[in-house]
Fold these 3 entries.
Entry 1:
Amino acid sequence: MASSSWTAPAARDPQARTGQVGQYGGQIVFGEVVSAEPTAPAPDDDLRFTVALAEGRSVTARRVLVATGLRDMLQQVPGLAEHRGHSVVHCPYGHGWEVRDEPIGILATSPASLHHALLFRQPTDDLVYFTHRAGPEEDDHARFAARNIRIVETAVQEVVGEEGALAGLLLVDGTFVARRVIAVAGQTQARAEGLDGLKLPMEGLPDNMGRRFASAMADTTDVPGVWVAGNATDLTAQVGAAAAAGALAGSHINAPPATADNDAALAAAQAADIPA
Ligand SMILES: Cc1cc2nc3c(=O)[nH]c(=O)nc-3n(C[C@H](O)[C@H](O)[C@H](O)COP(=O)(O)OP(=O)(O)OC[C@H]3O[C@@H](n4cnc5c(N)ncnc54)[C@H](O)[C@@H]3O)c2cc1C
């Protein structure tokens, strides 16, 4: 799998992607989906869906794979969103190498942030834990002290940048704590815009970690003919797992139409044999 850090997928040569998919008879449609819903089935009762695009066009599909990814629900701290994806990171595995040895701050959002701190302590010796929404318990003070993690309990007022880079955090008492990186374990939610018509069940994750489309084996859903793969159902999947889920769902998606085509051909053959 080709990849390039900090490059949005859409920025990676769209023509090359279109051409590669086209070689196999596929078609990429660039556009925003504003509605997707089941429509009248085909005469042989095989399922049909209509997917409408913002530009006004619509596409008919026999099956639907929802792979809309997720949306990060960032804390409402002034200045935080501007640095998202660069100096404001969430995943110790996705970003740990890039932020190694930097002065890192953990902006605590839930009890899960305590463990987040232990993970981000691995790539740096200079870690500050800002209690913000989730203070450590007595036990955690000792554990953090043992790993030289400093705790700041004064509320954070603002994330401060300097010439496009992160400079640090300003606290409500006026104290400034210099940091090059902030790690924040935010809530994540499957992107569901335009998909209401599919009536896909959603469910919350434990510890208020996020909300996903519910799925079962091979990314099937409770809605016949609709599959869901990648971050839309597995909020912690990275590129490899998301792509693998899409490939598995694809092979399962192909099975019912193959049967439907065969049933239709058989019905047509039988009808042709019946004398008028
Ligand atoms: C800053 C950052 C760094 C990361 N670094 C790594 C890394 O180093 N390694 C790694 O493996 N993973 C990394 N990840 C995670 C990785 O990006 C995801 O795991 C992966 O992209 C999930 O793939 P997906 O296909 O499920 O969703 P996405 O890649 O998010 O694709 C979903 C697509 O659906 C589109 N979409 C949503 N709704 C609609 C709609 N209504 N109409 C049309 N289009 C729609 C979205 O615009 C998006 O293009 C990183 C994530 C972030 C945020």
Entry 2:
Amino acid sequence: MSLFYYTNTMKILIASVTLNALNSLTIIVEKLRNALPHNCVLCDNQTEHFHNHLCQICRNDLPLPQYLCLGCAIPLVHQQPFCGQCQKSPPRYKLITCAGYVAPLKQLISSLKYKENQIIARELALHLAKRVKHLIDNNQLATPQYLIPVPLHKKRLQQRGYNQAALIADALASHLNIPVLDCTTRILNTTTQTELNAAERRANLRDAFKLVDDISGNIVAIIDDVYTTGATMHELAKTLECKHQLQIQCWSIVRTNIE
Ligand SMILES: [Zn+2]
Ligand SMILES: [Zn+2]
């Protein structure tokens, strides 16, 4: 046996032993972590796995009305793509949400945004992914090539420390296997929109975003946590469309004003 052959064989053997040792160690750490408490953020019962932040009962109880209008997300009695109003004046973008701004989604979003409970993004994204998968599987929605989170202004990002829409987009990306594209930035630090009506929100957000990277696909989904009047997502869509021919979808965890 030549020295060269012997050295290479030893290298392969050591790499294989190291990999096996690392895999065994990972399994042990996972088992140990799973033996420690990991409670459901809603009912405080132990969840099935420490990666899960809701127990299976609370997950199954999250509101997910069977039929929602694909234009305005209003609940529908029968399976049909659009409500009467959206059939009369077809919306520019499809709107995909889990449900209205109802408990416990309302509390989970508030906890994600204002209590630094970043782990909630994964559960919210998982819930929205259920709706998206169902629509894609039933040919009611085209699969987007990219997910584009609504960006926060850098000052707001510094205050909060994270962008909740980006966290949701990242989690959706792993649930749906669709990449996130960070191609926009927010150049206007808009004041809080809570007290503004639809027209004021549109005016408040005019030219708030800027495209900083090219988009190679032609179908994209904009991701946000809450859809109220649509002013934010529509302004971002306008920014994306200024350079590209795109089919844009708006995805948010909930839509307000619909209960
Ligand atoms: Zn629970
Ligand atoms: Zn509608």
Entry 3:
Amino acid sequence: MALVIGVVSQKGGVGKSTCARLIAREYAHAGWDVKIADLDVSQGTSFDWHVRRLQQQMQPSVAVERFGTVEQALKARAHYDLLVMDGAPHSTTATLKIVEPSTLAVLPTGLSLEDLKPQVLLAHELVKKGSTSGNWCSRCAAWETATRSTNPPGTTSRRRATACCPDRSPRSWPI
Ligand SMILES: Nc1ncnc2c1ncn2[C@@H]1O[C@H](COP(=O)(O)OP(=O)(O)OP(=O)(O)O)[C@@H](O)[C@H]1O
Ligand SMILES: [Mg+2]
């Protein structure tokens, strides 16, 4: 069953697809079998990137597929080591659905107050709605979510504690 990393924001153009591709490429380079679920079907940014890479025979191989719903995308978990969800902007419902199964939620943002504020509010909303619980990673500032589906109640997820930082995991984390 794949580890899931969700890349989300309510604002458009903040770097979701860029981060999703960067993460996917680095994990693939480290030997993971990776798929990006491109959930922004109207733009298909990551899918177009995939086509260009195929045409140029670029390595490492990263699978990319467009999905209309998060539920459909999650079915791909069975076949990969890592599923990176590239979310669409302005989609509250889908954002919540992406973060729920994610071990790591990445919320890219610009540095201006106008850019930061909506992302911080989104992070608070995700916690408030109970779609996720976790901690800000003290090293990389990513939000490490609890993986409730794989951990018995009351236990701490080993994966949760190691999702974003390389030297805390028995496996070779690429980022
Ligand atoms: N760290 C960065 N520095 C400079 N430019 C960046 C950075 N991250 C992304 N960009 C640029 O910003 C633009 C938008 O990036 P991207 O498509 O990844 O955003 P997005 O959040 O996926 O957008 P959308 O909401 O439309 O899906 C692109 O031109 C990309 O090259
Ligand atoms: Mg995008």
